[in-house]
Design a protein that fits this description.
alpha/beta; Rossmann fold; Ribosomal Protein S5, domain 2; 21 strands; about 25% strand; nucleotide-binding; hydrolase; ATP-binding; zinc ion binding
Length: about 450
């Protein structure tokens, strides 16, 4: 045994657990004989880089079975926000909200702070980007100047944590995490190390003191929350506030939620008095539809747990360029290229020499493959200049072989369409439809049969 290993070893009494620097025949703590044994170090490696020989407290292990009640939740009264949070705000939770500049994050959270404060939560709003007077002006414009919300403008993490520990609020909103700085990190505010340190300290504070913390995060030009990705792993819930500046609709989307379903959405409308919740987004997304026109198809999708009906619009026109243009708004461009290839390879319908434009009306972004059949129908309708019946919804996934595959929650999709007055639906064969006897269902097995029956080609 080398001298370094001898120094790193510890000697423990197996009777009472007392720790000794060297071995002896009798334990000085309990008086027992021959109970002191040598223990190996906790970890090995270079000195100062590993845990060494010092031991910590032993953890208490429990079974997976539990009788603990679900965490209590506080409802804000903003139904769309409560839906995205999974049924309300959970104590000790950390929520990260991201979105483009000017999309309405501060407006939404100020409205939420006023609602939570009115529900009995002691609520603090800490602004690192705006002065207190600017936040008060926004509150006055929204009619929230009398809400019992405490306001502060600060960026020092040490000052903020000291104040929160003294005041012990129920909810703290930090706007934004990129402006916070810790005096223990030698980096500028907004840097990766500062954002990581600030998020860690605030999340740890939430768990220790039972305070719910909502962090506002900046986004990059790609739409991702700026800073290290580890911040999204630290928090319990990650929300994205989406929307097009040209539309009044705003979508609050949950991409991570430890207390509820992910991919849930809440729909808001930007008005002069702030953000108003939209209880029936399908009706709103379809409100601008007129008479049936070529290239217009209604798709019945699922966002989280709610069905949403949205209009898919396509335009196909001859191109004057050698390379045809493919422009997509609200859908995946690679998915569009796949649909065009399947239509040409399996159905003999070429799009060479044609510009293709695809748009999801209302500013909504669709990501599920169930929209494949609706996109194909919109492309064919635009190419053939043939409108589809206005009271028909379409959904289904297209495989590379041209077969149509059933999608999940078909019954909920059809019930939403029936509720909004649609009378027929075109769906893949084999899907479970349940009690939707009020709709006339047309089942298709593959894309070739769909093209032949609906457009008389193929």
């Amino acid at each position: 045994m080398t001298r370094d290993m001898a120094k790193s070893s510890t000697f423990t009494c197996s009777a009472c657990g007392a720790v000794h620097n060297r071995w002896s025949g009798r334990c000085d703590a309990c008086g027992e004989w021959n109970t002191i044994v040598e223990e190996a170090p906790l970890s090995t490696g270079p000195k100062g880089k590993t845990l060494g020989g010092k031991r910590g407290a032993q953890l208490t292990l429990t079974d997976l079975s539990t009788e603990e009640a679900p965490p209590p939740r506080t409802l804000s009264g903003i139904g769309e926000l409560d839906r995205v949070l999974g049924g309300g705000l959970v104590p000790s939770s950390a929520v990260l909200v991201g979105g483009d500049p000017g999309i309405g994050k501060s407006t939404l959270l100020l409205q939420a702070a006023a609602r939570f404060a009115g529900a009995g939560l002691k609520t603090f709003y800490v602004s690192g980007e705006e002065a207190s007077a600017q936040v008060r002006m926004r509150a006055q414009r929204l009619g929230l100047e009398n809400a019992p919300v405490k306001l502060a403008a600060a960026t020092s993490l040490r000052d903020i944590l000291t104040t929160l520990e003294a005041e012990k609020p129920d909810l703290v909103i930090i706007d934004s995490i990129q402006t916070m700085w810790s005096d223990t990190v030698e980096a500028a505010p907004g840097s990766v190390s500062q954002v990581r340190a600030a998020a860690h300290e605030l999340t740890t504070f939430a768990k220790r003191f039972g305070t719910s913390v909502i962090l506002v995060g900046h986004v990059t030009k790609d739409g991702q929350i700026a800073g290290p990705r580890v911040v999204e792993h630290m928090v319990d819930c990650v929300l994205y506030f989406e929307g097009e500046r040209g539309h009044q609709f705003r979508i609050l989307r949950s991409v991570k939620n430890r207390f509820g379903p992910a991919d849930e959405i809440g729909v808001f409308e930007m008005t002069g008095g702030g953000l108003a919740e939209v209880a029936n987004p399908s009706e709103l997304f379809l409100s601008g539809r007129g008479a049936p026109s070529p290239g217009s198809v209604v798709f019945s999708g699922i966002e989280g747990t709610r069905p949403v009906l949205v209009e898919m619009q396509a335009l196909v026109a001859p191109t004057p360029h050698a390379q045809p243009r493919r422009a997509v708004v609200g859908w995946d461009g690679a998915r569009l290229a796949m649909i065009l290839a399947v239509l040409e390879a399996r159905c003999g319908i070429p799009f060479a020499g044609l510009d293709v434009y695809l748009n999801v009306a209302g500013g909504l972004r669709i990501s599920e493959p169930a929209a494949d059949l609706a996109v194909a129908a919109a492309l064919l309708s635009a190419r053939e200049d043939t409108p589809l019946p206005s009271e028909t919804v379409i959904f289904g996934e297209i495989s590379l072989s041209g077969a149509l595959r059933p999608v999940g929650q078909s019954e909920n999709r059809l019930k939403e369409a029936q509720k909004l007055g649609f009378t027929s639906a075109i769906i893949p064969s084999g899907g479970k439809t349940g009690g939707t006897s009020g709709l006339s269902l047309t089942r298709m097995g593959d894309l070739t049969a769909f093209v032949g029956d609906i457009f008389g080609a193929g």
